[in-house]
Write a structure and sequence with these properties.
- With about 150 residues, the protein is of the alpha+beta class.
- The chain folds into two domains: about 35 residues; about 100 residues, 3-Layer(aba) Sandwich (Aminopeptidase).
- Helix content is about 30%, strand content about 30%.
- The protein is built from four helices and six strands.
- A six-stranded mixed β-sheet has the order 1-2-3-4-6-5.
- Helix 3 links the parallel strand 3 and strand 4.
- Helix 1 crosses helix 2.
- It is extended, with a radius of gyration of 21 Å.
- About 15% of the residues are buried.
- The model has no long low-confidence stretch (mean pLDDT about 90).
- It comes from Blastopirellula marina.
- Pfam families: Acetyltransf_1.
């Protein structure tokens, strides 16, 4: 097909997440996923255990001093947030939270842990805990900082 016989397409720009077009695009991908990976899609739609949240809270004398927020999906535990009160950092709380998350993950048949973190958020902390860098995006924040993707087989 030469350039003269190619149909002309128009591209429309919108920031709407609720529209018939948005729904149609999602349906096309969902249909493709059903055809390509039916066993995964069956689990995703019918298994109440497909995704489970995890919240770990570290307290000292009733006061919250740190926490970890994660989600289990099948055999993966994705850590989305871990933070420790600045006054309590470097006392092993983060390490304890990570250890407890790994223990919980093993109890719930997870085989992997996953986290993404910024260059200034101490990826070395996760590496010391046995995580391996499996990817990175340079200049993720447009200010020169790299985002790291790390995983650990448990």
């Amino acid at each position: 097909m030469n350039a003269a016989s190619q149909p002309a397409y128009s591209i429309e720009c919108s920031q709407a997440r609720q529209s018939p077009e948005h729904d149609q695009i999602c349906a096309w991908l969902r249909d493709y996923n059903w055809q390509s990976n039916q066993s995964f899609m069956d689990l995703a739609t019918h298994d109440p255990q497909f995704e489970s949240p995890l919240l770990l809270v570290a307290k000292q004398q009733g006061q919250v001093v740190g926490g970890l927020i994660a989600d289990q999906r099948l055999t993966w535990l994705r850590i989305s947030i871990m933070a420790v009160d600045p006054q309590y950092r470097r006392r092993g709380i983060g390490r304890q939270l990570l250890t407890e998350a790994e223990r919980w993950a093993k109890q719930h048949a997870c085989r992997y842990l996953y986290v993404d973190t910024m260059q200034y958020q101490s990826p070395e902390f996760y590496q010391l805990a046995g995580f391996q860098i499996v990817g990175e995006l340079p200049d993720w924040d447009s200010h020169g900082h790299t985002k790291f993707f790390l995983m650990k087989t448990i």
